[in-house]
Amino acid sequence: MLGLKQTQRLSPVLTQQLQQAIKLLQLSQLELMEAIEQEINENPILEVVEEAAPPEQEEAALPEQTEEKDDATEWLERFSPSEEFVSQGERGEYPDYENMVRKTYNLRDYLRWQAGLSDLNPAERMIAEWIIENIDDNGYLAYPLSEISSVSGFTVEELERVLVRIQKLDPPGVGARDCRECILIQYRMEGIENPLFEEFITKYFELIEKGNIKEIAKKTGYLPELIRELLEKVRNFDPKPGRNYGDEQISYIVPDVYIVKKEGEFEVFLNDEDIPELRMNRHYMDLYMNKSTQGDTRRYIKQKVKQAEWFMKSLQQRQKTLYLVSKSIVFFQGEFFEKGIKQLKPLILKDIAQDVGVHESTVSRITTNKYMSTPHGIYEMKFFFPTGIGKDEGNILSTNVVMGLISEIVNNEDKTNPLTDDEIVTILKDKHNIKIARRTIAKYREELHIHSSRERRAQ
Known about the structure:
Helix content: 40-55%
Structural class: alpha+beta
Radius of gyration: 27 Å
Strand order of the largest sheet: 3-2-5-6
Shape: flat
C-alpha cells in the first residue's frame, strides 16, 4: 500500500558563495572569461584594473575583515593552498607549440574518470577497466560476466563485486545487463524504498514494455489507476543512459598551464594572459565607508561588496589550486616530462589530493576542461590520470604506454603481411608480459587511427 512518511536527515548545505567557488574550479579558460564578464556586468562594485593602482589606494578599496569566520571563509581557507604561483606574464615567451588538439571524450572515458575518484584498490581498478571496456555506447554491459571472466582471468564473483560499484557511477543505470536492471538501478539511486514498484518491475517487466494495463491488472489485482501511475514513473527513467555521451570533438584549445624546463628543472606557469585583474570601484567603496549612507542604498552596496569580495577570492583560489595541482602532476609524472609518453605512470586523484592537501573532488573539478602544454605536446589534464593494465610480474602500466607499444608494433610490422589484433595480443603477452583482450586492442587501434590488418594490407 502506498503511503507518505517524513524522515529527518542531516546533510551538508552549500551556500551560494561555496557554489560559486566550486563552479569556478571546473570552468575552462573560455568559460572563465565569460563568467568574469558576466559578474562584472551584474555587479557595479567590480571593475577591471586598467593600470596598477598605488598601494595605499588598493588598501583603501577593501573593507575591513571581521574576526568572525563564516562557512565560505572556512571553505576557502581549507581548499585554498597558500603557496604562491607564477603567472604566464612572469615566465617569458610561450613554448613554440601549435595550440590545436583533437579531443575525444565518450562514456567509457567518463566512467574511467569517475573510477579514479573512487577508493578501488589496484586489483579492483584493473577489474573495473575490464568491465568499463565492455560497456556499450548505450551504457549496457555488452557481454556476460562469464565471457569477460574467461578472457580476463578474473572470477565471475570478482567481476560481479566491482560491477556493483560501477553501477553506482554516473549516468544512473550504467553497467546494467538489460533494461529491467537499468530501470531498477536508476530507481534505487533515488534513495526511495517502494517494494510495490520493485515487484512491479521485477515480475511484470515484459508486460510493462508492451504497456498492457489490462493484463497487468489481471495478474496483479492492482487498480488500473495505480498501474498507470507506476507506468508513468517507469517512463521517467532513461532506458539508454549512455546515449548522451557520444564522442565530442573540440579544436583549437588554449593551454591553461605551461610546463617549461629551466636550468634542469620543470617549472609551472599559469596562462592568465586573458584573465583581467579585478578591484572594487572606488566610488561605491567611498559610499560604503561613508556613515551618512543609509537605508536601501547602504544595504545594496553592502551586498554587492560581499559578492565582489568572494568572487575575487574564489577566482584567486581557483588559480592557486590549478597551480599546485599542476605542480603535483609534474612531480608524480616526472618521467613523462623527461622522456615522453612511454614513461607515463598510472595515477589516481587521491594521490594528487593528498599531496596538495585538498579533497579528491577538488582535484577532479580543477582538472576538468583544462589543458597543459608540455615539452611533448599539449594534453588534457585528465590525460595524466591513466588507468592501469597489469603485467604478469605484478607491475601496472598506464593505458597510454600500452597504446604506445601497439603503435610501435604496427610501425615495425611486415607491411606485406600486417599483424592481426590476435597476433598483437600474443606479442604483448610474450614480449612485454601484458595480458590484454583482443577487443581492447581493437579499441586502442581505433583511437590511434590505425586501420585493421586487412585495410593496412590493402594500402
